[in-house]
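Is zinc ion placement plausible here? Inputs below.
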Amino acid sequence: MKFPFTYEIIYSRRKTAAIQISRDGKVTVRAPYGCPRSFIDSFLHSREDWILRHLEEIRLHPPKERPALSGEKRRLYVETARSVFTQKAAYYARIMGVTYGRISIREQKTRWGSCSSAGNLNFNWRLIFAPESVLDYVVVHELAHRKEMNHSRAFYDIVESVLPDYRTSRRWLRDHGSSLWDRC
Ligand SMILES: [Zn+2]
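Reply from A.M.:
I modeled the complex. Tokens:
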């Protein structure tokens, strides 16, 4: 099927298909391994209006050259992240009845958060640009590792008991997480 825009298909171990449009107008279809081409075509077809609207929007308002992230600005973001994650960790740890050690704020391309076996928590400062429910999910996820050091059913039961709608946030990270690097 022919579309009035170019696009790239990236297959990965995911369960659903999604369309991403980067700030500079690159269309990417993310699809599960083995997803038939006919499905991708009809998926693109069903979203064609939305894609064209988006591309038109980008054409009319092209993204501004992004100024380099200054040291000062970066320090501010990291400090903001430190204060947000410190508060959220304290809040959820009390609800979940868990303890934790140090909180570190980092920037790791591939990780949003982590929890060491000693209970030290790491969070990615770029999450401050994500919806707040996503921050809550990452915090609860890492704190749940204080009870289950794995991603078992029991682990996600703990997460769900605190955040019944956690799947929405998890999906947001999967579909839009990379856009947090476009922000600055
Ligand atoms: Zn985990």
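Short version: The chain has two domains: 7-60, 71-181.
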